[in-house]
Amino acid sequence: MTYTRGKMLRDTIAFALRGIKLHMGKRFVPLKLTEEQRYKIGDEVVRKLKDQWKLDEDMPENLPGPRI
Fold first, then answer.
1. Contacts of 55 (CB under 8 A, 6+ apart)
2. Cα distance between residue 7 and residue 13, in whole Å
3. How far apart are CA 17 and CA 30, in angstroms?
4. Which end of the chain has the least Cβ crowding within 10 Å, N or C?
């Protein structure tokens, strides 16, 4: 299975949206997006950036860190 730049960006955005809080006056309110909503946002970002960022390319194999 190939892991593309677009898939990595989508997964990263969805993960980052887990902890988003809105600043409402003097307090912060969690956004509380579902997993499906977070991945839809990630898909939309990837769709809009796909051509200019070449997100269809496979990720290089020699990146440091754990393998998926």
1. 4, 5, 6, 9, 46, 49
2. 10
3. 10
4. N
Global pTM reads 0.77
| C-alpha Rg value of the chain to the nearest Å | 15
Of 2, 4, 6, give the one whose Cα is nearest residue 45: 6
Query: Mind listing the pLDDT tens digit of every residue in the chain (68 residues)?
Result: 578 889 999 999 999 999 899 888 999 999 899 999 999 999 999 999 998 888 888 887 776 666 55
Element at 14 (helix H, strand E): helix 5-16
How many other C-beta atoms are found inside a 10 Å radius of the C-beta of residue 63?
10
Domain for residue 59, yes or no?
Answer: no
User: Does 57 fall in a domain?
Assistant: no
